[in-house]
Amino acid sequence: MARFRPRLAQAPKCVRPGPLPWPQQVRWTLDHRSRVRWHSAAPPPKSSESVAADEIAKFSRMSSEWWAPQGPFQILHLMNPARVQFIRDSVARYGLAHPTAPSHAPLQNVSVLDVGCGGGLLCEALARLGAKITGVDASHENIQIAKIHANQDPRLTQAPLTYTHTTAEALRDQAQQFDLVTAMEVVEHVCNPRQFVATLLQLAKPNGLVVMSTISRTYLAYALTILVAEHLLRLTPPGTHDHAKYLQPQELQAMLEHQGTAQVLETRGLWYMPHQARWRLMESDMGPWGTQANYILVARKLPTTTQGS
């Protein structure tokens, strides 16, 4: 019997996505209390160097379930508190926190861009902490759900929270920059991760932060995220992940630090505790073992004077 050896495949060639068979009528189920029916056909996904049309179509089909706690995104619902904790700690630890920010709004006056925001799980949490946040996604359906859900909370309608159907590359071409750029569980779904990472850095202000979370390409990650999560426990739909697209921490760090553009400041493992139904941030002193599956890191964009040509 041939020994299974998962390996990183070559990045698929990106092509300009053509029209997709979007449904003419979609029911968006936000929760058990409210249902919103949307009657217009969605446009095809935005095109860019990194957007993979098949990935956008896949997540667009599931977009109505973003805010269903027991739906296909339940893992992200459970992971969100740990991700928010890491971001909040990074802002305080690495000098982005405003000195006059109140304790209940530690991200006040911090401009944040969340790339691949989906239905807005992270955006809403950061908005409640005072961030001036922009969420972008190449899926029109995801953006519609994010807007509808945010409008249900009067606190968020008054918050500086903006959702836009666009791509990171489009914002880069507009020369937009932010104090903090996040891309959570996104890089493993793009078709050109190196270019995508470079774009994220261009969207960060000098000395700004980039926070990314993803999955390491290991045997353990394959077992946990595909065999167990997708096929055994059905926590996520089968086909959600592609092990060949996972990036090991040292690979992602090399992309971020290419030509001296950034410095990775901290990398932490994220582990799911099934007996507690929550995700836990692992201690940074655990070494490589702690990042064998899911992990999250923060990098600082270095000033232009220290970047390579």
TrEMBL record:
<dbReference type="GO" id="GO:0061542">
    <property type="term" value="F:3-demethylubiquinol 3-O-methyltransferase activity"/>
</dbReference>
<feature type="binding site">
    <location>
        <position position="188"/>
    </location>
    <ligand>
        <name>Mg(2+)</name>
    </ligand>
</feature>
<dbReference type="GO" id="GO:0010420">
    <property type="term" value="F:polyprenyldihydroxybenzoate methyltransferase activity"/>
</dbReference>
<comment type="pathway">
    <text>Cofactor biosynthesis; ubiquinone biosynthesis.</text>
</comment>
<dbReference type="GO" id="GO:0046872">
    <property type="term" value="F:metal ion binding"/>
</dbReference>
<feature type="binding site">
    <location>
        <position position="83"/>
    </location>
    <ligand>
        <name>S-adenosyl-L-methionine</name>
    </ligand>
</feature>
<comment type="function">
    <text>O-methyltransferase required for two non-consecutive steps during ubiquinone biosynthesis. Catalyzes the 2 O-methylation of 3,4-dihydroxy-5-(all-trans-polyprenyl)benzoic acid into 4-hydroxy-3-methoxy-5-(all-trans-polyprenyl)benzoic acid. Also catalyzes the last step of ubiquinone biosynthesis by mediating methylation of 3-demethylubiquinone into ubiquinone. Also able to mediate the methylation of 3-demethylubiquinol into ubiquinol.</text>
</comment>
<keyword id="KW-0949">S-adenosyl-L-methionine</keyword>
<feature type="binding site">
    <location>
        <position position="116"/>
    </location>
    <ligand>
        <name>S-adenosyl-L-methionine</name>
    </ligand>
</feature>
<keyword id="KW-0496">Mitochondrion</keyword>
<feature type="binding site">
    <location>
        <position position="137"/>
    </location>
    <ligand>
        <name>S-adenosyl-L-methionine</name>
    </ligand>
</feature>
<keyword id="KW-0460">Magnesium</keyword>
<keyword id="KW-0999">Mitochondrion inner membrane</keyword>
<keyword id="KW-0479">Metal-binding</keyword>
<dbReference type="GO" id="GO:0031314">
    <property type="term" value="C:extrinsic component of mitochondrial inner membrane"/>
</dbReference>
<comment type="similarity">
    <text>Belongs to the class I-like SAM-binding methyltransferase superfamily. UbiG/COQ3 family.</text>
</comment>
<dbReference type="GO" id="GO:0032259">
    <property type="term" value="P:methylation"/>
</dbReference>
<keyword id="KW-0831">Ubiquinone biosynthesis</keyword>
<dbReference type="Pfam" id="PF13489">
    <property type="entry name" value="Methyltransf_23"/>
</dbReference>
<dbReference type="InterPro" id="IPR029063">
    <property type="entry name" value="SAM-dependent_MTases_sf"/>
</dbReference>
<feature type="binding site">
    <location>
        <position position="185"/>
    </location>
    <ligand>
        <name>Mg(2+)</name>
    </ligand>
</feature>
<keyword id="KW-0808">Transferase</keyword>
<feature type="binding site">
    <location>
        <position position="189"/>
    </location>
    <ligand>
        <name>Mg(2+)</name>
    </ligand>
</feature>
<dbReference type="InterPro" id="IPR010233">
    <property type="entry name" value="UbiG_MeTrfase"/>
</dbReference>
<keyword id="KW-0472">Membrane</keyword>
<comment type="subunit">
    <text>Component of a multi-subunit COQ enzyme complex, composed of at least COQ3, COQ4, COQ5, COQ6, COQ7 and COQ9.</text>
</comment>
<keyword id="KW-0489">Methyltransferase</keyword>
<protein>
    <recommendedName>
        <fullName>Ubiquinone biosynthesis O-methyltransferase, mitochondrial</fullName>
        <ecNumber>2.1.1.64</ecNumber>
        <ecNumber>2.1.1.-</ecNumber>
        <ecNumber>2.1.1.114</ecNumber>
    </recommendedName>
</protein>
<feature type="binding site">
    <location>
        <position position="184"/>
    </location>
    <ligand>
        <name>S-adenosyl-L-methionine</name>
    </ligand>
</feature>
